[in-house]
Structures are given as C-alpha cells and as structure tokens.
Amino acid sequence: MRNILIVAYSILLGLFLTVGVNAQTIKNPGVLVHAADDEATTLDPAQVEAGEGGETVILQVYDRLLEFGPSGPELIPGLATTVPSVENGMISDDGMTYTFKIRKGAVFHDGTDVTAEDVKFSWDRIVEMDLPEGQAGVISDIVSETKVVDDYTFQVILLEPSASFLNSTVVSMAASIVSKDAVMANGGVVEGEPNEYMAQNAVGSGPYKLKAWNRGENILLDINENYWGNKAKLAARIEIGAEPDVRVLGLRAGNYDTIETDPSFVADIEGADGVTLHTGGLLLEPIHVGFNLNIPNGALPKEDTIPTDFFHDPRIRQAFNYAFDYEAFLMGPLAGFGEFNPHYLPIGIFGHDPDAPRYGAQDKAKAEALFREAGYWDNGFSVSVITEEANLFADAALVLKDSIEGLNPNFRINVLAVAEAVFDEAHAQNPVEYAMWVKNADPFADPHPYMSAYQHPDGEWGEVHGFANGYRNPEKIAELIDGASTELDVKKRAAMYSELQKMLFDDPMWLITAQEGVTMAYREWVTGFVHNPLWPRPSLRFSYLGK
Amino acid sequence: MSPDNLDIQNSLDKDLIASVTDLKVYFESKQGMVHSVDGVSFDIVDGEMMGLVGETGCGKSVTARTFMQLVQSPPGVLAGGNIKFRSKNIKNGSQVIDLLDLSENQIRELRGERIAMIFQDPGKALNPGLTIRTQVAEVFQEHRENDVLEKAGLKNKLSGVTEYFVKKYIKQEAGFLVTTLFKIPPLSTYKKKIDSGINRLVAEALEETQIPNPTKVMERYPHELSGGMKQRVMIAQAIACNPDLLIADEPTTALDVTVQARVLDLIKELQKRHKTSVLYISHDLSLVRRICDRIAVMYAGQIVETGDAETIFNQPKHPYTQGLINALPSMSHERGKLEAIEGIVPELIEPEPGCRFVSRCMRRKANCEEIDPKLKPISEVNKSHKVACLLYEA
Amino acid sequence: MKKNAQNAGIDEVNFNDSAFKVRLKRNLEILSNVLANPTTVLGLIIVILMLAMAIFAPVITEPNTPDPYQMPRDWKAARSAPLTPGHILGTTNRGGDVFYGVVWGARTSLKLSILVVTLTVVLGVIIGSVAGIVGGKVDEILMRIVDVFLSIPELIFALAIAAILGPSFTNIILALVIVFWVKYARIMRAQVIRIKQREYVDAAKIMGASKLQIYLKDILPNSFSPVMVQATLDMGNIVLVGATLSFIGLSEAGIAEWGVLVSEGQAGISAGRWWASTFPGLMVFLWALAFNLVGDGLRDVLDPRTETKR
Amino acid sequence: MQIRDYIIRRLMILPILIIGTSIIVFALTRIGGSPIGIYLSHEMSPAEVQEMKERFHLDKPVPVQYFYWIKGVSQGDLGWSGVASAPVVDVFPKKFAATMELAIAAGIVAVSLGIAMGTFAGARRNKISDHIIRVVSVSGASMPLFWFAILLLIIFWVWLGWFPIGRSDPNLFEAIPHPTGFYTIDALLAGNFSAFRDAIWHLILPAVALGYGATAIIARMMRSSLIEELQEDYVDAAKAKGLAERVVLKKHARRNALVPTVTVIGLTFGFLLQGTVVAEIIFRWPGLGRWMASAVLRGDQATIMTYVMFTSILFLFVNLVVDIIYAYLDRRVVLGD
Questions:
Q1: Hey, how many other C-beta atoms are within 10 angstroms of the C-beta on A502?
Q2: Contacts of residue C270 in chain A, CB cutoff 8 Å?
C-alpha cells in the first residue's frame, strides 16, 4: 500500500515540477487576461443595468454610432462615419434633428451588413422592451422619433433640444447596435420580457466576438477578423469574480494582464515586479452619503432617535458636511488616490466649477455650532446608516461614524453593512425606510443627468427622498437645472451650473465623501495601455491593447 | 538437586520441556507498580499436562502470556527471571532457549509453531471480520509455506523471482503492489493453486478437531458458529503446526457446561495423540485435577504450592490450597455449605514484604507479616511437592 | 469503580453527604487523569492565557469609546507595519490597531462562545431531557426535529440563517444557537435514557423518589460529563464557525473580531502586509486548538470507549 | 434480513426529513423578507420594482409563494439565480460537478491521511509520536480554513508558482467535451493527458487545504477504534500465531478499526461540503460553495434555498449510505452473537 502511494506521489510531483514557471516569459501569449469584479448578469444592451458587469462585454462586442475616444470626453466616429455638429450640418439648427451616416462595409458577427435599419431597430427595441432593469429611459426620455432615411442614413428627432444627447445617449451601452436578423430569429421583441438569446449571446459588429461564457468562471472573446476598423491584437479572457486580493496576487504572478482594483489596493501593487500601476484621472461616480427628507413615520430602526424631519433643517445637513473627516477618507481607504469634491458635479465633467465653495476639510467648530443652533448638541441623537458590505461604501460609513461620534459622545451612528440585494431592496423603497445611506452614483458624461437625478427637487431621487421639503428655495434650483439642460450656449450653461454649485453648497442634499481616483494595474508586457473613465468599468477597450 | 534450581545456564533437565524461574512481571499504573507476577518458578515436564490454578487476577494469565512475549509493554515491565524452553522440532535437533531473551523475530518463529495458545473466549479470540479459513490459514502461511506449496502442487516447480514472490505472497510479506498482481493474470493462476492448497490444509486441521463439514465451516465468519465450534477452530489453529507446548488459558470457561466436557476431552485426546506438553490454566481446581498430571497453585502473583495433582489434592499443605480444596463441593461436606475463604486478594501495588496470604490466613504466625516465604520442597523424600509457607520452614 | 458508582447513586437519593465526597473523589481522579496528558495541559495553558486576555482586555488596552467592541480607527495611519509606535502589531487597511483587535477579539470571541454555549446547553438539555423523560410521541416528534436540524451541515445552516437575518454580530449569535443546540438535545436524551435504565435509578424509584428528584439528583449530574466534553469542544468550534461567518462578511462593519480582521487583512498579504490577517487568524487557530485539545483530553478520560481494558 | 428492515426504516424517515428541511429552509428565507432584492439595482424606481415583483410572483402572499416554490421545485424549476444570472437549474449541474470533484479529492486526502495518521498514532498510543500526531490532527480541526487556504495560496501560487488557482486552464478546458462535468474524468474520457494533468494540478491545493481539516475527524476516530481493537483478544491470538506486527496491525486490527471509522465518513462529508464554501472562495473554484457565498453576500435567496436544500438532501443520503455500509460491515453489531 505504502509503496504504491509513494510511487504515485513522486510521479505526480515530478510531473508538476517539470512545469516550473518562469516569471520572465509572457504568460498566456495571444490572450489578454482581465480579472474582473462582477459576473455579468446579461449581455443584452436592452437589459443591462448601468455600471453592471455585462457592460464590459457589450463595450467590446458591440459598436455604437459614436464612441468616446481613447483620451477624455471627445467623441470619435463609431458605426457613424462622422460626429454630428451644427457646423457640419448634421445637427439641425433648432437642435432637434440629428443625422448619422452609417459606415458602409461594417458587418455583424453573423455576416449580415450593418444598415440604418439595424440602427433604428436597435434603438426602438430597447424602448419597446422597456425592461425595468434596463436603460430604456436613456433613449425614451430624450428621443421622439427615429427614422431610416436610406440604407446608410439614420435620423433622430428629439423631444426638446438637448446639450447632452451625443454624450449621454448615443454613446450609451444601451444604444449599442444589434443585428436585427439575429434578434428576430431568436425570440424577437416582446414588451416587458427579457430576450433569453440576447442575454447570453452577442451578435454585434464590434472588434470582438463572444466565444464562450462560462458562468462564474470566465468570458472568452475572440478577435473579430472582419472588423471594419483596427483589428484587435489579442483575444481576450475576462476572469470573473476573483476576490480583490486574488486579483492582485494573480497580477503579480503574471496570470492576469489587467485587473480591476480600487485605491485601497494600490499599496499592494506598487513596486511589484513587472507590474505597472496606472493612476491619474478620476472616476465619475461620486461616493455619497444620502439624507432622507421623506422618512415615513415609524419606519426607522429601533436604535434611531432622530425625528422624521431631522434632515429638513439645512443646518443639520451642513453640520454633517462640516463634521465629515474628508482627509481620513481620502488618505485611508482611498490611500490618497482621489480628490476632495463635495459637489455632485464631478471634476472632469463640463460645468464643474473649481472656484465654487466646497467643504473639503473637516471643521469641527462649525459643525458643533450648527448642531447647537439646530438644538441637537446637548441631547445628542442616534441614526443608522445603511450601506453595502463593499469596501469603500462601508469605509465611508465608518469614517462618518468615527467623525460624528468623535464630535460628541452623545452622537451615535450605527453602520448597517448589508448584502447587496438587501441594500438594493431597501434603497428601492419609496419612501426609503432609512435616514441615511452610502453608495455611489452612476457615471455620466454630461452634467445634466447628475443634476436632474441627484439634485432636482422633482428629479428621480429628489422626489423619492423629498428634497422639496428641505431646499430653502426649491423652485430656483429646479429652474436652473431645467434651464441648463436646454441651454446650447456653452458659456451660459457653465455659468448656470456654477451658480447651482454655490446654491448647493449652502443647501447640501448630499455629503460627497470624495471623488475616487482611477487606479488600474497591468503587467508591463501589456502595450498600448489606454484608459478612459467614460468607458464603462473597467474603462478599458481591449482592442487597443497588445502584449 | 531439584530440577528447578538446576538450569542457570542454557541447560534443562532432560525430562522438562520448559522451566520458569523467578519470573517477575510488573505493570505500570498511576498508583504505582503492580506486581502481577512476582517471583514465579515452576517446571513443565515433557509430554505432561501441567495445571496452573488460581483466582482471577492472581497473575496466571500474565504468566502464560509471558511465554509468548504477549504482555503489552508499556504498561507491562519484565522485572526479572527467565523461561527456559526446549525447542524440539528444529532442523538441528532440540535446543534450549530462554524465551525472554528472544528478539521479536525469533519469538515470532516459535509462536504458533513451537508454542501455541488457546484463549479463554473463542468469540473474542477470533477476528470477527475474517473467515475461519483466512484465520486458520495464517498459521500455515506463516510457518508452513513448503506444505502450502506442496499441497498447491507447486513444490520444486518454481524458481528464481517467481518462487521468491510466491513465497513472499504466501507469508503475507508481499506489499500492496505484489498482492494486487496476484489477483490478475498471469499470477492469478498461482493464487488459485495456493488457495486450494491452503484450503486443503485448513480442512485437514479442522477435521482433526472433529469439526463436521470443514469445507463449509471454513467459509463462515466466527459469528456464524457456536461457541464450542469456535473453540474447536481455535484448537485446530493452535495444534496445526504440532507445537511442543500448548498453553490453554481457561479454554472452557466461556463455554456452555455441556460443551465444556467435550472440548476438554478433545484437548486431552489431542495431547495424548501428539504427545504435546500442555500448560493448562484454570481457576477450577477440580477440573484441573481431572486432566492434569501436576498442579501449581498461584496466589497474588506467586506460586504457593506445587506438586503432583493427587498429592496436592489429597495432602494440601498451604493454607490457601487447603482453603481452595475445602471450598470445593465434595462428599465430606454437606451440600450447600461451602467454605469460602474469608477476605479479598490484597492489592498488588508495591506490596509490602511478608506472606501475601497473611490477611486471610487462619493459621498465620507472628512473623508471617515480615518474612517472605520461599517455595521449598516439603520434605527430603518428596522433592517435587513444594510449598511457600513459614509453617513448613524449619 | 462500578460498585462505587452504584453506591453513589443510592447515596444521592438518600441525600447522604458521602455522595458528594464520592463524586469529588471521582472528579479529582478525572482531573489528575486529564492533567497526565501533555497535549491537554498545553491546551489548558492556552485556554487560560486566552481567557486572561479576554477578561483583562480593558486593562491591556484602552477601550475604544463609545463602543469598545468597535476597532479604534486611526484612518491616517492605515497599513502601518508592526512595531510602529502606538501600533505594536501594525494597523489594518482601515487604520484599526491590530493589537487592539487581537485583544478585544478574544473578548468578542469569549462573549460569542459563552453566550452561544450557555444558550445551546440550556436549550439542548431542556429539550433532550423532555424527550428522554416524557418519551412516546413527544420524544418522536422532538427527535425528528433534531434529525432535520442535523441533516443540514452546520456551517451551511449558520451561513444561511445569518445571511437571511442580515450581517450583524447578534445575528451570528442567533444563527449559531439555532444550529448548535441539537447536539446537546441528542446527548442529553441518550444519557437520560441510558441512566433511566440503570439499576440505581430503579432503586431510587423503589424508594419512592419523585421523577423530578430522580432527574435532579441522578440523571442531571450523571449526564454532566458528555455535555461538558461537547461544550468544551464547542467553545472552540463556535469561535471557528463564527469567525468563518465573519470572514465571509456576515458580521458588523468595523467590529473587533478576528474573522473580520482576517477578511480585512487578507487583501494586503500579497503586498507583504501579512500582519493584519496573520495575527487574528493565528488567534482563531489557537483558540480553537486549545479548546479542542482540552475537549479531546476530557473525552479520552471520560469516554469509556478508549479506556484501557486490562 | 435485519439489514433490510433497517434500510427500509431509514428510507421511510427520509421523506419526513426532506420535507422538514424544505419547510425550515423556506421559512428561513421568508423571515428575511422578500427575495426581490437580488433582481433589483441601485437605480430602480419603485414602479420598476413592482414590475419585477410581478415577474417573479413575489406580489403574492407567502403561502402562495411556497406553493409556487414547491411546484417549481417538483418541475425542476428552482428559481432564478441573481448571482449566476441564470436559472438555478441551468447552472446547478456544472457547479455541482465542480464541487463534488473538489470534495471527493479532499476526501481522498482526508481519508488516506486520516487513516494513516490514526493508525500510526493508535499503534503508538501515548508515545511521543502519538502526541505529535494528535496535535497535528487537532490542529487540522482547529485551523480556520479561510486562513490556512490563504497561506497555501501565498506560498504555492504566489511565491513558488507551483500550483495554479481556479479549476482549469481555460484553453485545455475548452479543448475537451464535458459529458460528466468532472474535469478529471472528462479529460480521461477524452484521452487528453495534458487536460488530465491540468485538472489534477488545479485540484491539489484546494484539496489539501480542505482535506486537512477533515483529516482530524478520521484520524481521531481511527486512533480510538484502533486502540480499542488492539486490546481485543484476537490481536493477541493473531500474534500468538506468529504473525508479523505489520500483518497483525493491518490485516487484523486496522481492518476492524476501519468499520467504526466508516461512520465518520458521513460526518467528514458534511465537513468537506461546508468547507467548500470557503475553499472555493479563496481558490476561485467555480462550484456550489462559491456560488453560495456570493448568494449570501448579495442576498440571492433562490440560490441559498436550493443550496441548503440540496446540500442537506445530499448529506442525508450520504449518511444513509454510510449507515447501510456500516450495518453491513459490522457483523458483530447487527447479526452478532
């Protein structure tokens, strides 16, 4: 018995030792291995949620009419041959009609030609399906009509002039162009029902073809040899769901070429052999602490002692903004990679005014004065903040806890770090049954979506959270936000956003902790590395990369 | 000189098969050393049946196990003494050896081959997980590989590596790999032959002990057999190699009364037929008297009296022996009025000097508590009747 | 030995104080047997050190205010190496002092294990006793429930419960109680039935002792040793399972608990920041090891199965 | 005959246990509220949430939901896994095979190591090597798997680079068909040696990490039952036949000591099964345990329910089989004298 085991073990050991790994040689030649965070939920542009893992794949396998170029917010042609502008006549003078010339010779992965008919079909499809998880609103909120002028000309008529149509609608993953033939052959378009085929397959015209999706393991992408533009240099493999530390270890070991990370891992990567850390630039997803101005009676957790109108008082909201230890958050969890940005217009977005007043530094004295003024200093209060058990959100909540509790021992912040689904459900209630929460925003390329979703008293969240109960002057804010969205004069528009930022400093609806810095890590052998935060996370287009 | 004091060197009286001298076996315990066997000496005459009698826990089983070095160590400690044994059926004639001096491998050669043992409870002494055949076969496999080869029809037909491995296989010395190889062709043909050879040997051995239908019985597991049948299997296993000395450790105690007599007769008969010497251990004096030629009475780790069965029975000298005999139901006493010996056996942990029996003795003298009595012949006339008691010391 | 036990039984029913002596003597004997095993002694020493650390935590480190079970976070000193002034074992990614976490983690673990063991023992002993004494249908139903609980592997069961209740330390305690009581119910029932069948309980019955008296004076004390063995082992296992739940992410954020610290610290290991997970992980290991060694030693002494026969 | 009665009795209890488990599991998941969360995202409006509820019948009362669930389960519909973004039934078989492969490999490690260690220690009772083995095996039971696995990962993957993580090299995995889902078996069936080697190579680290903990259970049982067997008369009887120590130990004592050890294999299996949750997280093994862990963190109740339900049924069956084997093996107990 023992003999055979020894023999077997030594044979096995021998076999494996011969496969010794040489760290110097490029591993996985010909394939770009990217270690991602989340599993994709769906690969259907009509179903995918903003910021969700499926967008990573959709970006690579589908084309849109226009794309963000490799650097910054400038637009480059995609399936449309030119970027429309008033100057080139492709935007009508009233700003209502946009014309796109479709690229001839572009083919879908199934071999059919890309035509204006496919473009119209793709745009109409998402609006018709109108899935709750999808982003139909990106198109339906802004577009009145789509038209096929001829086989290679596509026209869009808007509901009203929009300064953000090209930047936020045309480039959106939701506006990806799918093959009409493929969809019609596989389930067609049904209102309110996801298309199972499209959820798991991808028939696009992008630089990559979907080879296989092994759920929970990886997504394999093959080079599209018939791509109309510059062909991808490497096939790609997206490794799914590795823990952050496993991703870091894998990168260091050379098993991964690029990894998604956040600033708290920078120290793990810095100085590692053969690894390049890419920093610089900022993510466009401010991490915020939310105040509920619409708390239903009796809904709060038992420990909470605050009245339901606690946050109606702007002084309380200001006090929280003054009390938060911004530096601790930036230097601790973000390891210094980020910027103070106490506004809902992130740095890097049009309209962000660097000269507008902002919080940015902890001011305990002011916070104390404001809490005293509001009448809470002596008796204190206890409030729960709900967040997702994700590193940075929980960190922000803990910094808040430490800041507020450090101010006055009578103040208590209870951090409830719950499962993602639990958080999503809690946050999806109307009204929300918690007084405070921590999460981040979706990234946008234009100031308007930020303002309308997060600051407008009648906007998506303004309505749910009861902003109208708290703004000193809600009408003025609404008017400014609405006005800026249709203002086509750039200077005037910028002035309007600047004024908004001043008003929102005085009357904050959020506590913006910081704007997270971009941190990407990749092996030195990866060539042509470019990164654009306007691309969906991880903000990489694999087709640009080689090794 | 008496036979007991003669054999300081490797010599042994011609008529003796074994001689135990001043054997001391202690056991470690948390309370101290337990002197289970404390200076035991006796002889076993060649071809005779020697009875070793005593109460439970007096050390008789330990003494018997010491013959085969079967006392577990730790906690057992061999504190002194020797056991001379005449090993007869060895290639170069007979030879006297000290059983306690032998290495593990040397004693293994004797176990089951020259000295065999029958255990008290055959239900426990047979491995419940193996068939009768497998268990009896082991004796032949271990000691009689040539017989096995012969019965298998393989004798002188093998050579070189094959012979080497076949012998290893028979002796259960082959590793996992070789054993497995014997299960698949071409070696499996050897396995078949060996198996049938072993089967024949096992059947013969079982037949010897009057087991009916041996070929059927040997495929059974122990729990499928009756107690008497199991003991017959044990006996068959013990005498399979025709040993010089058979140690029977209360072989009938665990059996039904009706079966006891038959098993006893079987042992007696086999002993006579093979002229085997037997060390018969029992707590039952009357039973021992019936079958044994000589008797040694043991008390609290020591021999208190030894002599011919009849002498001991008719003229017991030691107060303990007398007590034992008085406790027996016999014609001289009224029915139902047995005389039990008062008191209990003393603790054997680090015993004080003095006679072990003193606390229970009806005839104790003043110095009994201080002086250790020695085992000495009772008289110049009958040197073989010895007793350890101050009453008989000059 | 057996005779003694029987005498003890009868004595107890007669309320003789010699019963106490007999038991004391037996316990001393057990104790000396336990101490004869070097590995058990090793375990015992670690247990004592751990308990001392837990009990004297406020003396060893300044308690965090307002909640001492929360890690004190020095955000700006995050990721400090060991031997940094003020942070002898370094800090975590969140600037939590690892030494504080190690010390107060012992207190957290003690709190967790004591609470869970006490609750499960009480629950299990009551349910098991009821099943064993009442018998019949009640027994049948209770034992089926126990079987159902036992049919789900404990970590998975606890994981599911804790996941559904939401991440918090209290919920971990609750989940562990729900999972761990069944063993005691089973042990207790078996003991009750076994002891019920012994002669000396019959003797007590003949002498007219009431059911409750028999239970309190005979059955309960005699069931003590297997329950104690299990409880000792569980003191370790509960911390192990609890830390695993915390590691997976079901504890409160920022709490001074070993599993949470390992989970927080594991990310830094690859960058050479081994301390934040190594020390707390080692503590979990030592804690569980110590109680397992002691429990194992106790079982060897108390369980007749492994006693020497000769 | 007795064995058959015993099995029949056990089989009759089984459905009761399964139904009991299903009620517990369902009740549990509903204590935590509606399982709708997993289908939602941060940005959904309340109206959209209502739509999602209707899609999954979650607008109905709880007993009706139970009915939907049981009906679904009986028709092989276990719900939608938010974590895997697919119906549970679709994902389950592959993940199940992955987990079983790991659990079996770890079981082999645990059983061979446990029996070897238990035998070694039992044969040398109370000697130094016994104490050492005891500490080593109790260490296994006390080792937090999440910690041990990370240490192995660091040493053998990062520092030495000897072993990979994950389950396979994707290219080799793609190269062969997967009729069984067990990568090792599939590789053998396909006759692809490098895929087989790849499979084994990926298995070693997680199997060792996972198996080490279970070793203690087996070693402890093996040791004590071997000690017990070594005190039996038949061991002395075997020695009295002149058999070598090795034969006495292995053929006689160990064989019988293995019988009670079989009973803890069920326990070991449960231990390994629950260990896969942690081992799979750390070694990136795409099995049930990892799925469960993400389900737990994201509140994916359909997955949690299926997993707990299935694991306990599996555990029940394994224990039933173990009991039957034991009853069959131990002739002394069931049919004995």
A1: 14
A2: 245, 248-249, 252, 268
Residue B210 belongs to domain spanning: 132-217
Closest CA to D203 of D297, D87, D283: D283
Amino acid at D65: Q
- As a whole number of angstroms, the longest Cα–Cα distance in chain A is 88
Cα A326 to Cα A329, A386, A406, A436, C67: the distances in Å are: 5, 19, 14, 18, 22
Counts for chain A of helices (H) and strands (E), in that order: 17, 17
Number of CB atoms found within 10 A of residue A43's CB: 25
- The DSSP call for residue D253 is I
C269 touches chain D (CB under 8 A): yes
The answer, yes or no, to whether the previous bond of C66 is cis (omega within 30 of 0) is: yes
Q: Taking phi first (over 0 means left), then psi (-120 to 50 degrees means alpha), and beta for anything else, what does residue D57 get? A: left
Looking at CATH, the fold of the domain delimited by C37-307 is given as MetI-like fold (1.10.3720)
Q: How far apart are CA A351 and CA A452, in angstroms?
A: 14
Distance CA D67, CA D26 (A): 11
Greater confidence (B157 vs C104) lies with: C104
CA distance readout (Å), A139 to A146, A165, A379, A399: 10, 9, 50, 38
Q: What pLDDT, on the 0 to 100 scale, is given for residue D210? A: 92
Tell me which chains share at least 3 CB pairs under 8 Å with chain B.
A, C, D
The whole-angstrom distance between C240's CA and the closest CA on chain A is 21
Q: Characterize the bridge pairing of strands B93-98 and B32-45.
A: unpaired
Q: Given a cut of 50, is residue B27 above it in pLDDT?
A: yes
Number of domains in chain B: 1
* Residue of D90, D193, D298, D305 for testing the chain A interface, max A β-carbons within 10 Å: D298
ipTM attached to this prediction? 0.73
Domain annotation covers residue B189? yes
Closest-CA residue of A relative to D87 is A196
pTM of the model: 0.77
The answer to whether the Cα torsion of A329, A333, A339, A344 is positive or negative is negative
Q: How far apart are CA A58 and CA D333, in angstroms?
A: 64
Does residue B148 sit within a domain? yes
- Cβ-based neighbours of A51, under 8 Å, separated by 6 or more: A285, A442, A443, A536, A537
At residue C71, the 3 state secondary structure works out as coil
Partner C, chain D 245-304, Cβ-Cβ below 8 Å: 270-271, 273-275, 277-278, 281, 292-293, 295-297, 299, 301, 304
Domain limits, chain C:
37-307
For A220-278, where are the alpha helices, taking DSSP H only?
Answer: 244-253, 266-269
What is the arithmetic mean of pLDDT over B127-143?
84
Q: Does A90 touch chain D (CB under 8 A)?
A: no
The 8-class DSSP code of residue B28 comes to E
In a domain, B239, yes or no: no
> In this predicted structure, what is the pLDDT of residue A149?
93
Long-range contacts of D31-35 (CB under 8 A, 24+ apart): D31/C164, D31/C165, D32/A422, D32/C163, D32/C164, D32/C165, D32/C166, D32/D299, D32/D301, D33/A425, D34/A425, D34/D58, D35/A421, D35/D299, D35/D300, D35/D301, D35/D302
User: In this structure, which topology does domain D3-33+78-335 adopt according to CATH?
Assistant: MetI-like fold (1.10.3720)
Q: Does some domain include residue B50?
A: no
What tens digit of pLDDT does each residue of A244-295 get?
A: 777 887 888 788 899 887 776 777 777 778 888 888 778 888 889 999 999 9
CB atoms within 10 A of CB C2: 6
User: Cα separation of D308 and D306, whole Å?
Assistant: 6
Candidates B160, B184, B150; CA nearest to B170 is B150
Distance, CA of B343 to CA of B337 (rounded, Å): 18
Helix (H) / strand (E) containing A159 = none
